[in-house]
Amino acid sequence: MTAAEEEEKIYCICRRPHGDRDMVECDWCEEWYHWDCIGFTKEQFVGDFRCWKCLSEEKEEEIVTTPVVEKPVKKSKKKTSKEKSSRSSTSAKLYCICRQPYAATKDYMVRCDDCKEWYHWDCIGFNKQQASKPFSCPPCLNVKRKD
Fold first, then answer.
1. Tens-digit pLDDT profile for residues 111-123
2. Residues 23 and 116: beta-carbon distance below 8 Å
3. Which sequence spans correspond to the domains of the chain?
4. I need a surface site. Which of 48, 78, 128, 144 has the fewest CB within 10 A?
5. How far apart are CA 102 and CA 146, in angstroms?
6. Which ranges in the chain belong to alpha helices (H)?
């Protein structure tokens, strides 16, 4: 592979090139991930790394049903006029490892049973067959694995 081809190769759940960002390789599937996309730094992680896909395949024997919601539940917290004016009208809550907003027209999302963060199905390789199973996000799976 030429240097130009290597620069254009996409990796990770963000589906972006290496970009001089620190990366880690899954010891099972050999896919590469940016540390910042999976929510860790090299210093925080010790031992072998398994991506969430490989960890969730290993976890499939522990099946408990968890409902999947197409749209995240919003907390009802009244904002003061100062808080309302300080927020841009175009700002939206960011979710997932991709740090993108929810798009009702195209996104299905699932909430991590552990940390309660929302994830886009496409970003984590989630599908309808997994919808009735428990879900732990990549950072939570790796923390559980360490314990």
1. 889 898 888 888 7
2. no
3. 3-146
4. 78
5. 31
6. 3-8, 35-38, 52-59, 81-86, 121-124, 138-146
